[in-house]
Amino acid sequence: MHVKQSTIYKSVLLLLLIVAAGCKTFKPIEPKTNQPLPATFDGSTDTLSAGYLPAANFFKDARLLKLIDTALRANPDLQSALQRIDMAAANVKFNKSLLLPTVNFNARAGLERYGDYTMNGVGNYDTNLSPNINDKQRIPNPTADLFVGFRASWEVDLWGKLKNQKNAALARFLASRSAYRLLTTELTGQIATAYYQLLTLEVEQNVINKNIKLQENALEIVKIQKLGGRATELAVQQFQAQLSHTRGLQFSTTQQIIETENQLRLLTGSFNGTIERDTSLLTLTMPEKLKTGVPTQMLLNRPDVKQAELQLAALNADIKSARAAFFPSLNLSPYTGYNAFKGALLFNPGSAVYGLLADVTAPVLNRGRLKAEYASRIAEGKAALFNYQKTVLNGYQEVINNLKGMENYSKYFDQKKLEVSALKNAVSVANDLYLVGRANYLEVITAQRDVLTAELELANIKRDIFISEVNLYRALGGGWR
């Protein structure tokens, strides 16, 4: 008896040592930046309410909003993202179910013939000769083993391993929703960017067509002057080369329009159809200037920041679960039903059985694998923290860049308009002077080329203003209602 108690004592002591070896303190990795976030983006005390940002707050063009709305219903990438959310939701339900016992209906039938010189053979032979049993209790050979009833299995979550697995799955589910919002924001930004690019190309096409007519007129004039001996073949060829170059730009721009329209069709999930747009980019109202003191708290509403934060939370839960794997686990396996060796006796009240098996296991020789997995989870958590910090920092810089971009491109646009106006006047003056012989043909060609370039740049600058607005929408977290 003393030896048996000593063995039990040593077993318990070994179990406690195993538990103690796994009980290292763990401090969750907090989602924080290396430095405190600035209160505002540019020091202003103005604020813009932090929160969900409907695209309609940024984009006023009804045709653009219609394109975005169509894409959110039909874009294949967005539909795939919805399925990933459903997958993550199912994973949450699966991990939640691990906390509950599993109960299964069990019907089992077996048959065994025992030999004369086996434990069952000798025991059953002796039992069948006993005067204490009746005919129903005599054991046949072969012997059937029949069971009908319920069996359950339940891992008691003593250390929170299963709970943390569920928490990790829940965090990843929420991260998948943030990923969906991120994709929504990116899709909205891509459509708006392509839309404004299309408007720009329409303006460029109009500018090119107008300049082609001007250059055709100039070519006709120089040809007439050549016939009158006031111009040379060199001048004719120079004007012809300039016209051919501009006509080449026309075809190039037409191709870009086709590709941009098809890009919008791809994003909106359609094969064909007209892309409705307002072709008067230069007359579109400039984007409203946001209050420059947009609080940096809005960065935390960015879907990529939220996603990084939730992924960090999931890894924290993974670390806790990996840590709990060092501790002993308790599994309970109850059962109840009917068990007999004869079919006629199976549902006899005397065949009713029940039982409970408690199983305690603790890792011993496989602790090296558990330590490696735990260390891997810790490293993943630290990497997720660095990713979170990078995402926040990147978001802050994007907001600053695009706030300043809208401001500086607007000033650039004002100056370019003055330049275009001056160059148009220069073309008119050059033509008049050429006709009276006070300017040469190269001055006319240069003036025409400069105004064409400036008008194309003017369209692109206004496009850049709207693109900065689109990028600011992305940088502040985006959204759609």
- Please tell me how large the radius of gyration is: 40 Å
Quote the distance from N terminus to C terminus: 76 Å
Largest sheet: 4 strands, antiparallel
* Strand runs, count: 4
Report the CATH topology name of the largest domain: Outer membrane efflux proteins (OEP)
Q: Low-confidence segments, ≥5 residues, pLDDT <50? A: none
Mean pLDDT, to the nearest integer, reads: 84
- Principal-axis shape equals elongated
Strand content: 5-15%
- What's the CATH first level of the largest domain? Mainly Alpha
Helical coverage, percent range? 55-70%
SSE pattern, N- to C-terminal: HHHEHEHHHEEHH
Query: How many domains make up the 3D coordinates?
Result: 2
Number of helices: 9
Q: In CATH terms, what is the architecture of the largest domain?
A: Up-down Bundle
Instruction: Assign the structural class, choosing from mainly alpha, mainly beta, alpha/beta, alpha+beta, or little secondary structure.
Output: alpha+beta
Protein name: Efflux transporter outer membrane subunit
Family: Belongs to the outer membrane factor (OMF) (TC 1.B.17) family.
Membrane topology: Lipid-anchor
GO molecular function: efflux transmembrane transporter activity
Structure description:
It is found in: Cell membrane. 61% of the residues lie in helices and 10% in strands. It has 481 residues and is an alpha+beta fold. The chain folds into two domains: 26-99 and 161-327 and 365-475, Outer membrane efflux proteins (OEP) (Up-down Bundle), CATH 1.20.1600.10; 102-156 and 328-361, Outer membrane efflux proteins (OEP), CATH 2.20.200.10. It has a four-stranded antiparallel sheet, with no helix packed on it. The mean pLDDT is 84.
